[in-house]
Amino acid sequence: MEARHLRYALALAEHGHFGRAARALGIAQPPLSKQIADLERETGARLFDRTRQGVFPTPAGEAFLARARRALDEMAAATVDAGRAARGETGRLRLGFVASALLDPLPDVLGRFGRERPGVRLELHEMASRRSTAALVAGELDVTVTLGPPRGAGAERLVSVPVGHDHLIAVVGSAHPYAGQASIGVDQLRRQQLIVAAGEDEPAVVIGLRTLLGEDVAALDGATVARDVHTIMGLAACGIGVGLGPSRMRSVPRPGVRFCEVTPRTALPDLVLSFADRDRSPALGAFLDTVRRNCPDVGAALDLRLGPAC
Description:
Blueprint: H1 3-15, H2 18-25, H3 29-43, E1 48-51, E2 54-57, H4 59-86, E3 91-97, H5 106-116, E4 120-126, H6 129-137, E5 143-147, E6 158-173, E7 183-185, H7 186-190, E8 194-197, H8 203-213, H9 218-221, E9 224-226, H10 229-237, E10 242-246, E11 257-263, E12 267-276, H11 282-294, H12 296-306
Parallel strand pairs: 3-4, 3-5, 7-11, 8-9, 8-10
Antiparallel strand pairs: 1-2, 5-12, 6-10, 6-11, 6-12
Helix pairs in contact: 1-2, 1-4, 5-11, 11-12
């Protein structure tokens, strides 16, 4: 039994006449009569009564036609769904990210992707870089944003491009003596209670701070440890000390704090977007297209690795 048999039976029920049904289908009447007879033999039931007044479905025919309509509707829906999935309009995207990526660039990228691809189910996981890299290599994630390039077993099989460059800045409460300064020097930092973030991703930041402060790291050793940049800014607003974090902190408006550059300028690890080189899923492709359009520099780097987007 094929889809055309279902269409033939539905057309015959609609028109109630072999000749009219055949014309509507664009075929001759004898082939239609034969196909209906073959269908009745296959089902083992008489589906239509042939009378002088017309052709009418039998009770068995009515039951068959109800299923036939649903089957054809499902086939049409399957075609539509397949096309949407192939265009990356449906499916699932699993993203692992470090918290600081929510300052920039993820808000704009995720917002645009959600508006343009509402049928794609986003599964978002805040994770330390090492854990998200391992999950990506294991196939448990589709894409990650990590602090610094991915490292560890399998990292060489990943496509990775920077999505954010950053440097160290300071944040102080509006009543702090440094609040009116455009920049803070190393000697000034050494004399302050410092506030820094903890966590698996912070060693690289701490290494940068130790390099900046040189051998005199007493201020760093006695620093107040915060969970993330939001806590750093909150503690600075309370007058606890001088918070140190990435310059993307500026993108989070918060009353009661002031930002200052740190001199000399100290680069922090890049935010890096990574995905499996073998992954060509439409949902991932759609996400990368959004990244390309939202972050032109990233798009150019992706084009170098993968070729221009179609």
